[in-house]
Amino acid sequence: MKALVTGATGFIGSRLVRELARQGMEVRSLILPGEPAGHIRDYTTDIRRGNLDEPQSLKGLLKGIDLVFHLAARVTDWGSRQAFYRPILDGTRNLLEESREKGARFVYVSSIAACGLGRHLKGMRESDEACMSGVPYNDAKLEAERIVRSFHDQGLVNAVIVRPANVTGPGSVWVRDIVDRFKGLFVPLLDHGRYSASLVYVDNLVSGLVLAGTRPRAVGNTYHLRDDWDVTWKRYLTDLGAMMGKRPGFSIPFSLAWTLGALSEKILTPLNIRPPITRLTAAIMGRDNDVDTTKARTELGWDTHVSYEQALAEIRAWVDDYLRYE
Questions:
Q1: Cα–Cα distance between 44 and 280 in angstroms, integer?
Q2: Which of 77, 111, 219, 220 is the most buried (most CB within 10 A)?
């Protein structure tokens, strides 16, 4: 089987490429022109350079491909609407156009953000209605899902949509950014950190992506992937902080964090300055986002095979190196 991976050099993509190669698949990786690829070269049989914003650079990309994993996106908590919509929505549309009627299974890696972060999502199932939230990353992901679903319903691609929870692991955004904040003044809690951190460890996620790409009954379905760890934000931030001899600081109410995020984004984003707090961060850390994962567990046979304690050990090793060589 031949698989195409977009975003192959990224945190999740590089782990996925390695796992696909381990399972005996031939892997074609799409990476940006000039992007370093040394860390995936041993697991990739074919490296293609192109830009999802430029349809011409995607010509012939699907030739001989049986399976597409579309991960490439802007992954951060701040930026203009255009900065999110161009790579997430327009890029997905361009890749779908290149994939139409090629026969490959198209696994779109979305996010629980597409459900509409900013409200409590605890217990939300894949069949429940997702909604726009006004946060560019959330809304771009949801609109991209709708385009993927439209192509599938028209019989143009065989699509599967996967919505990961907050992906953690060595070098993840939810490790690196928090460590960087701990190096500054403080890392606050939202609503006393009492809500679940709604995490999924990168290797657990990758196993779910492979199942979504290979299980026959997955086609046409959407799946939530979230580990069954009982870990609140207070515990997670305390555990990360302990690796640096730090502790999370005072608590901010969710409503205040959301308001401050909206104001900071409005003032600082046009100046290309990263806001100190954003609505996306407030929605992730200040609401309960434990979406239901029954469907993935029953239909795909997916489960959590890396424990929280094992994950922390790997994260700690990465943090030690990151602080040593920064």
A1: 34
A2: 111
Q: What's the start-to-end Cα distance of the chain, in Å?
A: 40
Q: What are phi and psi of 284, to 5 degrees?
A: -75, -40
pLDDT at 185 over 80: no
State how far the Cα of 42 lies from the Cα of 90, in Å rounded to an integer.
Answer: 30
Q: For residues 116 and 133, is the Cβ–Cβ distance under 8 A?
A: yes
The residue written with tokens 């698989």 in the block is: 3
* Whole-model pTM over 0.85: yes
Q: How far apart are CA 252 and CA 275, in angstroms?
A: 16
**How many CB atoms are located within 10 Å of the residue 127 CB?**
8
Average of pLDDT values for 271-280? 95
Element housing 145 (H / E)? helix 136-153
Rounded Cα–Cα distance for residues 66 and 52 (Å): 19
C-alpha–C-alpha distance, residues 78 and 168, integer Å: 19
Distance CA 191, CA 182 (A): 19
Residue found by looking up tokens 């830009």 in the block: 51
Helices in 24-86 by DSSP H: which ranges? 81-85
Q: Which CATH superfamily is domain 2-168+198-228+290-306 in?
A: NAD(P)-binding Rossmann-like Domain (3.40.50.720)
User: Among 151, 21, 37, which residue's Cα sits nearest to residue 94?
Assistant: 151
Decide if 193 contacts 286 (C-beta within 8 A).
no
Instruction: Assess contact for 5 and 27: CB atoms under 8 A.
Output: yes
Whole-number Å distance between alpha carbons of 2 and 25: 6
Return d(Cα 88, Cα 84) in angstroms, integer: 6
Report the pLDDT value the prediction gives residue 93, as an integer from 0 to 100.
97
How does DSSP assign 266-286, residue by residue? HHHGGGT---SS-HHHHHHHS
